[in-house]
Design goal:
By secondary structure, the chain is mainly β. The chain is built from 4 helices and 30 strands. 7% of the residues lie in helices and 53% in strands. The strands form 5 sheets. It has a 12-stranded antiparallel β-barrel.
C-alpha cells in the first residue's frame, strides 16, 4: 500500500464523520508553469484612490507563517481525549528543538516543550504553548529510529512514549504530497501541508496519566504510528499593532515587539522581519504613491527554498489610502518550493478609517472551510491596528 493512501486511511479512521475521499492527500492544484503564467507578473490593483497615504510604512494585511520539521513522529492513540500526538524536531541555528503537539477531539492543538525557544518558534501562530517538563532520549542508530520521550501534557498528566521506526528516505516520498490538515487548529489557522517523506513505525509503547494506551489500527492490524518529514504554511489568526520607525516599522504582538526593515529593489518595496528561526517577507508593488501587496514568503534558516509562498494577482490595494468600491484578487500558495498547494480569492473593502480584507480559499477541499478576515484601522500617531480571525464558511 502506498504511503499516501496510508495517510488518507489514518485520517479516515480518526475523523470518521468525514468522507474517505475528502481526506485523501492530493497533488498540486495547478502546475508550476500555470502558476507562473497566472501569478508571475502581478498587475496593479486598478482601484480608484480617493486620498493620499495616511502613514509612511506599508500595512501587513494578514499574518503568514511557515515551518519545516526535520522529523515528525505521529501517534494516533486509543484515548478518549487526545486524537493525535506529534513529537516534532525543528532544526534551528542554535541546535535541534523538540516539542510535543497534542490534538483533542475538536482538532485544537497545543504545543509543549522544556525550552525557552518555544516562544520564538513562530510567534505569529496563534496556538497555545506550554513550557514544562519534556525529555527525549535519542537511542537511534543510522536509519533506525529509537526514542524514549517523557513529558507533562497540557492537562498536567505524565506521558511516556517509546517509539521505534525507520528514518524516511527519498524512496518514501508520496506521489501526492498535498497533505490533509485533518481539521487541526481549524479555529485559528488556514494551513497547508507538504508531506515530503513518510514511513510506518510498527513498534511503540504509550503511557498517559499512568495508564497504557494502544494505537488505533487499520482493519485491526496496521498500527497507526508514522514518521514524517513535512512542511506547513498558511495564514494565522493575529492581533498586532504596527508602529512607525526610521527605516521601517515595529510590530507589537503584546508580549513581543518585532523590528521590520524596508528595502527597495526593482520597483518593489519589501518589508522584512528576520526572526531567530524564520524570516517573513512582504513584497509591495511601488507604483507612483502606492504600495500594493503582490507576494509574501517565509524562509527558514538552513533551508534553500522558501517554506511558504503566497502570490497575488492583481496586487491588493494600498491599505494606507482610501479607495472607491471593492477590489478582488486571486491568490496561490506554495509550500516547500513545490507546485501550488492552494488557490483562492481575496476581497478588499475600504471602511471608515481603514479596510476589511476577506480571504476565501477554494482549493484543496480541506482549506475551503477556513476563510479568514482582517480588519485594518489607521489610528492617531501613525499607528495601525491589524486584527485577523477565522470567519464562518458559507
Amino acid at each position: 500500500m502506498r504511503q499516501y493512501r496510508i495517510f488518507g486511511l489514518l485520517s479516515f479512521l480518526v475523523f470518521g464523520g468525514c468522507s474517505f475521499k475528502s481526506l485523501l492527500p492530493t497533488g498540486a492544484v495547478m502546475s508550476l508553469e500555470e502558476g507562473y503564467r497566472l501569478f508571475g507578473r502581478p498587475a496593479p490593483s486598478g482601484v480608484d484612490y480617493r486620498g493620499l497615504a495616511q502613514i509612511d510604512y506599508p500595512v501587513l494585511p494578514f499574518q503568514v507563517f511557515g515551518l519545516a520539521y526535520g522529523l515528525d513522529l505521529v501517534v494516533v492513540a486509543k484515548h478518549p481525549q487526545w486524537t493525535m500526538h506529534e513529537f516534532a524536531r525543528v532544526d534551528t541555528p542554535a541546535g535541534p528543538l523538540w516539542f510535543a503537539k497534542e490534538a483533542d477531539a475538536q482538532g485544537r492543538q497545543r504545543v509543549i516543550a522544556d525550552d525557552a525557544r518555544i516562544h520564538e518558534l513562530l510567534p505569529e501562530v496563534d496556538v497555545p504553548r506550554y513550557r514544562q517538563n519534556f525529555f527525549i532520549d535519542d537511542r537511534s542508530q543510522g536509519d533506525h529510529l529509537d526514542y524514549q520521550i517523557r513529558y507533562t501534557n497540557s492537562a498536567r498528566q505524565p506521558v511516556e512514549l517509546r517509539f521505534r521506526g525507520r528514518r524516511p528516505s527519498e524512496k518514501d516520498a508520496p506521489k501526492k504530497r498535498n497533505g490533509n490538515t485533518m481539521g487541526h487548529s481549524r479555529q485559528s489557522l488556514l494551513a497547508l501541508l507538504d508531506i515530503s517523506r513518510m514511513t510506518h513505525a510498527p513498534a511503540l509503547s504509550l503511557n498517559i496519566g499512568g495508564r497504557r494506551y494502544g494505537t488505533k489500527r487499520l482493519f485491526g492490524i496496521y498500527s497507526m504510528a508514522f514518521v514524517l518529514e513535512q512542511t506547513q504554511g498558511g495564514l494565522s489568526r493575529a492581533a498586532i499593532v504596527q508602529k512607525p520607525q526610521t527605516g521601517g516599522f515595529l510590530v507589537d504582538r503584546g508580549a513581543m515587539l518585532e523590528t521590520w526593515r524596508i528595502e527597495r529593489r526593482n520597483s518593489r518595496a519589501i518589508a522584512v522581519h528576520e526572526g531567530k528561526i524564520t524570516t517573513l517577507t512582504y513584497e509591495f508593488l511601488e507604483t507612483g504613491d502606492s504600495l500594493e501587496l503582490a507576494a509574501v514568503s517565509v524562509t527558514q534558516a538552513g533551508r534553500s527554498v522558501p517554506v511558504f509562498e503566497m502570490s497575488l494577482n492583481p496586487a491588493l490595494p494600498d491599505l494606507r489610502r482610501p479607495f472607491q468600491g471593492a477590489a478582488e484578487s486571486r491568490f496561490m500558495m506554495r509550500v516547500n518550493g513545490e507546485p501550488p498547494h492552494g488557490l483562492g480569492r481575496i476581497f478588499v473593502h475600504w471602511e471608515g478609517n481603514g479596510s476589511r480584507i476577506e480571504v476565501w480559499p477554494q482549493e484543496p477541499s480541506w482549506i475551503k472551510d477556513r476563510p479568514m478576515m482582517s480588519r485594518i484601522a489607521l489610528l492617531p500617531g501613525g499607528l495601525t491596528s491589524v486584527v485577523s480571525d477565522r470567519i464562518p464558511a458559507n
